[in-house]
Design goal:
Layout: E1 2-6, H1 11-20, E2 31-35, H2 46-52, E3 57-63, H3 75-84, E4 88-92, E5 111-115, E6 131-135, H4 139-142, E7 149-154, E8 161-166, H5 172-175, H6 185-201, H7 205-225, E9 231-233, E10 241-245, H8 253-262, E11 269-270, E12 281-285, H9 292-306
Parallel strand pairs: 1-2, 1-3, 3-4, 4-5
Antiparallel strand pairs: 5-6, 7-8, 9-10, 10-12, 11-12
Helix pairs in contact: 7-9
């Protein structure tokens, strides 16, 4: 079988997907096929998607917002095309975007996944890793979950319920080396931190936080776009990440980032070696922790180093 993914996926994430799908010599190998991206919008090329869908495609995976920040406005059409071909639709999302963006279930997602790191978890020198997964409440999905499932169950006392592990046969406790669990204690501890964080946000917290992030990210893109020689790729189509191009400055991203770092600022992720069509570009990200003053300092410092 095959799984279709966006051509402009995070290389590290794509590597992990290919690892889970196993090498071609393995009996359970799943071929990972990339779908072209429209260079004018940064979104999935639906024509190429239609051409690659078929009976041998198990799933279509895309992220919304995407790796380079763009919002997939044709998500419902992608899900419709996948369903018509008999494939599952899997969507990766930033949880903080869900307060201001359409819920994946509303545009046809079968499985939704994402990281826990945005939910109040500090980076911890590259740690703080964990993820979450959601699906329809159907047995065919539940039996494939790769962790311990805690459910409310009946007890020996009539009318009393308690918490217990469900479907234990599918994890390493029941199936040993063939178990499907790929998580550890740190993931569960981060889940507790995330639960506390979400409770403190309050009933309107996700909407308020999402609105704040979009506002600051768009402000940052506007400020950087006013720096001579700097261009924002796909402006006003992103959540918190956006691509900044330096081709017209005559500098490489590495040179720009070295100059920024010398002034106490970490520049955007250098993606010049990932997407050739984007030239000397960097992926910038603005969240709720960046103030308007931080953004203006970045823009002013860029003007200084590019002068």
């Amino acid at each position: 079988g095959k799984v279709l993914v966006s051509q402009m996926s995070d290389p590290e994430r794509l590597s992990v997907i290919r690892t889970y799908c196993q090498p071609s010599a393995m009996e359970s190998h799943v071929e990972v096929v990339t779908v072209a991206v429209d260079p004018t919008s940064g979104r999935m090329d639906l024509g190429d998607l239609r051409a690659k869908l078929g009976d041998d495609v198990a799933a279509v995976y895309f992220e919304n917002p995407a790796y380079l920040g763009t919002i997939e406005t044709e998500a419902a059409e992608i899900a419709r095309l996948a369903r018509a071909a008999g494939a599952e639709t899997i969507v990766g999302v930033d949880p903080l975007s869900l307060g201001v963006m359409t819920a994946p279930d509303d545009y046809g997602a079968d499985i939704v996944t994402g990281p826990v790191q945005p939910l109040g978890v500090h980076m911890q020198c590259g740690g703080g890793a964990g993820g979450w997964i959601a699906s329809r409440d159907e047995e065919k999905y539940v039996l494939e979950y790769n962790g311990f499932l805690v459910s409310i169950v009946e007890t020996l006392k009539e009318g009393e319920v308690g918490f217990g592990l469900a479907c234990p046969h599918q994890n390493s406790y029941g199936s040993r080396e063939n178990g499907k669990d790929w998580t550890g204690n740190s993931t569960y501890l981060w889940a507790i931190a995330g639960a506390v964080y979400m409770s403190l946000l309050g009933p309107e917290g996700f909407r308020e936080l999402g609105t704040l992030i979009v506002s600051r990210a768009r402000y940052a893109a506007k400020c950087l776009g006013e720096v001579p020689g700097v261009k924002i790729v796909w402006p006003d189509t992103t959540f918190k990440e956006f691509v900044v191009n330096f081709d017209d400055t005559g500098r490489t991203v590495a040179e720009v980032n070295d100059a920024l770092r010398a002034r106490g600022i970490f520049g955007g992720k250098d993606i010049s070696g990932e997407a050739d069509a984007l030239g000397q570009s960097a992926l910038y990200c603005v969240t709720e922790i960046h103030t308007a003053a931080d953004i203006r300092r970045l823009a002013d410092t860029l003007k200084e180093v590019l002068a």
